[in-house]
Design brief:
Strand order of the largest sheet: 19-18-20-24-25-27
Low-confidence stretches: 1-5, 12-17, 583-591
CATH class of the largest domain: Alpha Beta
Number of helices: 11
Distance between the termini: 26 Å
Strand content: 25-35%
Number of domains: 3
Radius of gyration: 24 Å
CATH topology of the largest domain: Rossmann fold
């Protein structure tokens, strides 16, 4: 990832300005700024840097933040009091932001009028923010840009220290949702993983209401004729996830209102989420009456997404049709994009194919063999915009999150060619595959050099990994285009011989912003961070968390596009194989994985205690990482017994020096899976 860490010190949860304000101190050193060149332009990078600006504007990077905020509020303003700044030596010609479709040749954008303006850019360090409901919690996100650039003179100044105040105010449009105890237990850990102020969750959690006996936690929704086909999976979820039901489309259309069938399904889900105990939903059906087509356009009159957007069933705030024109998901439709439910799809109307996916899902969680395949990852990177930008770049970002004890197979294309043994690796067994290439509905491809297929309709049938199914994620264009007949994403799920247990591919174009990581790439990176860095194990939760984390990039319209188009094919409750602990059919206990609880106190000034629960004895490591991904302290390495325990942490790094103020991750890893939590040190 990066060698440095940008300091973030949480100062308080209240200030004189208001009880609901959040204040923190930002600081960065000049030697953390990295300089490079790109097609004759200058590129300025910082650790964890993201570019939040529109096409044609200078591609300065900032740091993304997401906070939990009080119920019933939205961010009103983010003020930045600059405490120190420093002129960077030299004169700079900063590259303009360019949005580029992965399947098309790269053409740099024309510089915007900003480049001829005497005003510094940007006009303020934080120019926009997003607020919204996330499973009953209120979240707010933004990007802080610590640069001021004068395009006429080429001067570039770095803000080295600043006090930041996030001011929230009451918002009558903010939907207030209460949760049952089961919902709170499912949603709070997910939110805790993504916010900078997890210590505020107790004060600003949604209200709780009583659980009702018989309320489903997990539902599958499909045609009445498929109820018997899904019955084994419903029974499996009843044993291992919580109360589960198959709900027919016919029942929903007869009992819920809405403009069309997708809207009636969404209103049913909203009722079950807000008034009952729903957490997971599996949509059963191919392209048709259960799908919502998005009409999101980048700009008026330009490229329209116009494909399946199952995020419509995930984000339940509003109607997704704010202007009432029955074109859903448009920029003006009042969407906040944060997740409420975990939703996936079984993408077929065929009884045989559905039986196959049901059997795959149950077998994956009950009879999958042990072996090194559980901790093997496959990273594939084609030439995205050669000769200057390669898929290996984002693959290496992802690799930084994968634990050292994993086997990581790296197949990268360069100007000389590419390897082509990916099917052999999949057949030998790999639990995770991240595929970065060029795509269409029929597959994902290398840029050049035959054979060009990475994973495609021409080679997927050679996968015979039925006992070692892979979780696939990709940035490629249209590989998940469900409006086409049997796209590659569907075929990986439908194959009776192997393929995938879950697929997350784009239903339309994948987007990048070279030379910086683009929105499609950030979704991949955040998925890896959730899976490997934070140890989240349920695929639907990982996918939603990753989408929610990129919502802080509110000024990048393509973030909204990517959030809508990247659909999950598979059961959202399925547990990633490396996080399983050996579920056996008939066991009446839910699958267990290590749990690492939030430190106490948190924030910590000098030290804290970190409690854990282990489903089984074994050799475990407990490590503290800074937000640049560096291991700064190993708290434990060795045997730990089954059950509850705790570790003390004195706030020191491995050399005995006090760790600086900031946010840290604590990761527990061992044979029964991983657990993770965040810790704030405030000196």
């Amino acid at each position: 990832m990066h060698r440095y860490m940008i300091l973030f010190t949480l100062l308080a949860l209240s200030t004189a300005a208001g009880a609901d304000d959040i204040s923190f101190r930002f600081s960065i050193e000049a030697d953390q700024v990295e300089l490079s060149s790109w097609m004759g332009w200058d590129v300025v990078s910082i650790p964890e840097g993201v570019v939040p600006f529109r096409e044609g504007e200078p591609s300065l990077q900032g740091v993304a933040y997401t906070f939990v905020i009080p119920q019933g509020t939205s961010i009103e303003d983010v003020s930045v009091e600059v405490l120190g700044s420093e002129a960077l030596p030299g004169s700079y010609r900063i590259a303009p932001v360019t949005y580029s479709i992965l399947s098309r040749p790269f053409e740099p954008a024309s510089p915007s009028p900003v480049y001829s303006s005497p005003e510094g850019f940007p006009d303020r360090p934080v120019s926009a923010w997003r607020s919204g409901g996330r499973s009953g919690f209120r979240l707010g996100g933004f990007v802080l840009v610590p640069f001021v650039y004068d395009p006429l003179s080429g001067d570039l100044r770095l803000i080295t220290a600043a006090d930041v105040t996030v001011r929230c105010s009451n918002d009558a449009s903010a939907e207030t949702v209460s949760l049952t105890g089961r919902q709170l237990a499912a949603f709070r850990p997910a939110v805790e993983q993504m916010v900078e102020n997890p210590e505020a969750l107790s004060a600003w959690s949604p209200a709780t209401r009583s659980d009702t006996d018989g309320d489903p936690v997990w539902v599958a929704i499909g045609d009445s004729g498929m109820a018997s086909v899904l019955e084994p999976l419903v029974a499996h979820r009843n044993l291992h996830t919580g109360e589960a039901e198959y709900v027919t489309v016919q029942y929903i259309t007869e009992n819920y209102t809405g403009y069309d069938t997708p809207e009636k399904i969404r209103n049913y889900l909203k009722d079950q989420f807000q008034n009952h105990s729903l957490v997971y939903a599996l949509i059963v059906g191919d392209y048709g009456e259960t799908t919502r087509i998005s009409s999101y356009a980048i700009n008026s009159g330009q490229t329209v997404l116009n494909n399946v957007a199952d995020h419509y069933y995930i984000d339940l705030d509003g109607t997704w049709d704010g202007d009432g024109d029955h074109k859903y998901g448009e920029a003006g439709d009042g969407i906040n994009y944060y997740s409420d439910l975990y939703v996936g799809r079984f993408c077929s109307d065929s009884e045989n194919f559905l039986e196959n996916m049901v059997e795959k899902t149950i077998s994956y969680e009950t009879t999958t063999p042990e072996g090194d395949w559980r901790t093997t990852a496959l990273l594939m990177g084609a030439g995205l915009w050669p000769p200057d930008y390669w898929g290996s770049f984002v693959c290496e970002d992802i690799a930084e999150y994968i634990p050292a004890y994993w086997t990581v197979e790296k197949l990268y294309e360069d100007e000389y060619g590419h390897p082509n043994n990916q099917i052999d690796i999949i057949n030998e067994g790999c639990s995770f595959g991240s595929v970065h290439g060029h795509g269409n509905w029929g597959g994902i491809y290398w840029y050049d050099y035959a054979p060009t297929e990475m994973v495609a309709t021409t080679n997927y049938a050679d996968m015979h990994n039925i006992d070692m199914l892979t979780v696939f994620h990709s940035i490629a264009c249209m590989a998940g285009e469900l409006t086409e007949g049997a796209c590659i994403a569907e075929r990986l799920m439908l194959s009776p011989f192997g393929g995938a247990i879950a697929v997350m591919f784009n239903s339309s174009y994948g987007w990048g912003t070279p030379p910086a990581r683009g929105p499609s790439e950030w979704l991949e990176i955040k998925f890896a961070e959730q899976l490997f860095g934070f140890g989240v194990t349920q695929i639907g939760v990982i996918q939603c968390n990753a989408k929610d984390e990129i919502q802080s990039l509110v000024t990048v319209p393509l973030i909204d596009w990517v959030t809508q188009e990247n659909n999950l094919l598979g059961d959202p409750a399925v547990i990633f194989i490396a996080g399983q602990t050996g579920i056996e059919e008939g066991d009446d206990q839910a699958p267990a994985a290590p749990i690492l609880y939030s430190p106490a106190p948190n924030p910590a000034r000098y030290g804290c205690s970190i409690a854990y629960d282990l489903p089984a004895s074994g050799e475990f490591s407990v490590t503290v990482f800074d937000m640049a991904g560096r291991a700064v302290r190993e708290l434990h390495s060795g045997m730990l017994p089954q059950g509850s325990g705790s570790l003390s942490f004195d706030g020191m790094d491995g050399s005995g020096a006090p760790l600086p103020s900031g946010v840290y991750s604590v990761v527990l890893a061992g044979p029964s899976g991983t657990g993770a939590t965040r810790m704030v040190i405030a000196r």
